[in-house]
């Protein structure tokens, strides 16, 4: 049976932005490695802290997402997520599917600049059928 974390994992996997040329060629400017180290150090420090919620400039935000019955069936999104997951290779599925409390959720970023190691499976890595199966998760 598919669960909520699979739906979220499938949605996580379909986000992507353009990658700069140096990330594609491997020709790194001198400034890249220190920035990559700073990203990695910041990530390690953040993951060492207990997750307590969403924080903004105004502080910790409470009550953003309450868990309650809505009367709306999740059957369609669950079916779409299963169809998407069934199109993935075993390696892609490992990079796409995480437990609800996995660190990957906190490590994910929309940054795709060749500096930050992205989580999940990029649309760029998917074939046409996989991308087509991913799109209903975003509708």
Question: How would you characterize the overall build of this protein?
Answer:
Strand 1 (54-56) and strand 2 form a beta hairpin. Helix content is 45%, strand content 4%. The protein has one domain (4-44, 72-137). The protein has helices at 4-13, 21-25, 32-48, 75-87, 90-96, 104-107, 128-134; strands spanning 54-56, 59-61. It contains seven helices and two strands. A two-stranded antiparallel ribbon has the order 1-2. With 139 residues, it is mainly alpha-helical. Helix 1 (4-13) crosses helix 4.
Question: What is the topology?
Answer:
Layout: H1 4-13, H2 21-25, H3 32-48, E1 54-56, E2 59-61, H4 75-87, H5 90-96, H6 104-107, H7 128-134
Antiparallel strand pairs: 1-2
Helix pairs in contact: 1-4, 4-7
